[in-house]
Amino acid sequence: MLSADEVEATGRSIAAMQEPDGAIPWTTGEHVDVWNHVEAAMALLVAGQVAAAEAAYDWCLELQRADGSWPMKIVRGEVEDDSGETNMSAYLAVGVWHHWLVRRDRSFVERCWPAVRAGLDYVCSMQLPWGGIAWSREWTDGAPGEASDEAMLAGSSSIHHSLRAGLALAALLDAPAPRWEEAAGRLGHAVREHPDAFADKSTYSMDWYYPVLAGVVRGAEGAALLATRWDDFVVPGLGVRCVDTNPWVTGAETAELVMALDALGERDRACRVLGDSQHLRLEDGRYWTGFVFPDEGNWPPEQTTYTAAAQVLAVDALSRSTPGAGIMRGDSLPAVRELEGDCRCRLSA
Questions:
Q1: DSSP 3-state assignment of 133?
Q2: How far apart are CA 278 and CA 134, in angstroms?
Q3: Contact criterion met (CB below 8 Å) for 209 and 247
Q4: At 116, phi and psi to the nearest 5?
Q5: Which residue, of 217, 220, 249, 253, has the fewest CB within 10 Å?
Q6: What is d(CA 123, CA 197) in angstroms, rounded to the nearest whole number?
Q7: 288 SS3 class
Q8: Which domains does the chain have, with CATH numbers?
């Protein structure tokens, strides 16, 4: 467990890489994507960097497009990849709900609400008949183009979490959103009952733990799911592999597994796994992205904001230090009744 001073130091390391317009790139000079940007804003708030966090949210409001999406990659204010990825477009809802839990600032929520609403409406428009959410929509000549027909299990699980956060915001503002509730119900059923309908990314640890982390699969079923591939991904003393075929543990995936374990009530194991990843921490609070254990070297040779952010959020989840510590446990989020979609079309393809 990190001390409060160490969490603040990591918050300062994230703020130090924030660009003047509020954007938080993966690392200095690298690209920005909205999902990791919002996660970094959440960590800044936990670390007491309120002004920096709110500047990050202002950036989201400025950069959102008319259809509710954001470009997938932005480098120093210039769009590098303009396709609209659904998971990224959904995640602002989680960040805004987290801000409400920590700050109880209704005016902030009201200011962000139009962007949250547009983002989640865009996501719902991309739902496939069997319940999954299409991965992205291409853009051509500055206009929306063709949509993907594939959905990703980790991304769709995260979208389910975002839809529940959006419903919590809607209830706070007395702005019912039945379309989001229906979409979440169909999506939750697809993730729980038909994981094979999603694109096969099973070599990635995110596909393994994300249904648990995002709250779709919990309790005994969640514990059983994590047990299925624990030995494939968890390297004792080092952390969690990003990909099962590579001898490379990463700080972000490790922190996310920690939060999944915490959500299952497995606090002791969560603390142990989090401790295993602290070899990635530098004295000033920054984090290496990962570690290649046969070579005993950090790779890539960079410290990333998303790794630092995930670590801060994991520490907050375990320490219960802020009112937003339960954001991944879903303590404050409404339950959603599952609704069956037509998975036959996907499973028979």
A1: strand
A2: 36
A3: no
A4: -60, -45
A5: 220
A6: 18
A7: strand
A8: 4-328 (1.50.10.10)
CB atoms within 10 A of CB 30: 15
> Alpha carbon of 248 to those of 72, 154, 239, 290, 298: distances in Å?
25, 20, 9, 7, 9
For 124, the token pair is 């719902």
Residues in the chain: 349
The β-bridge relationship of strands 290-292 and 71-75 is unpaired
The 3-state DSSP class for residue 150 equals: coil
- DSSP-derived letter for residue 79 is E
What residue type is assigned to position 297 of the chain?
G
Structure tokens at 32: 């920005």
Q: What is the pLDDT along the chain (349 residues), one digit of tens a residue?
A: 899 999 999 999 999 999 999 999 999 999 999 999 999 999 999 999 999 999 999 999 999 999 999 999 999 999 999 999 999 999 999 999 999 999 999 999 999 999 999 999 999 999 999 999 999 998 877 778 788 889 999 999 999 999 999 999 999 999 999 999 999 999 999 999 999 999 999 999 999 999 999 999 999 999 999 999 999 999 999 999 999 999 999 999 999 999 999 999 999 999 999 999 999 999 999 999 999 998 899 999 999 999 999 999 999 999 999 999 999 999 999 999 999 877 655 544 4
Give just the sign of the alpha carbon dihedral 22, 28, 34, 35: negative
Q: Are 189 and 341 in contact (CB under 8 A)?
A: yes
Going by C-alpha positions, the residue among 315, 326, 323, 325 that lies closest to residue 2 is: 315
- Report the candidate in 85, 61, 69, 75 with the shortest Cα–Cα distance to residue 26: 75
Instruction: Give, rounded to a whole angstrom, the gap between the first and last alpha carbons of the chain.
Output: 47
Chain center to CA of 93:
11
Across the beta sheet with 78-85, the strand order is 71-75, 78-85, 136-140, 143-147
State the CB neighbour count (10 A cutoff) for residue 269: 17
Q: What residue has token string 């999944």?
A: 260
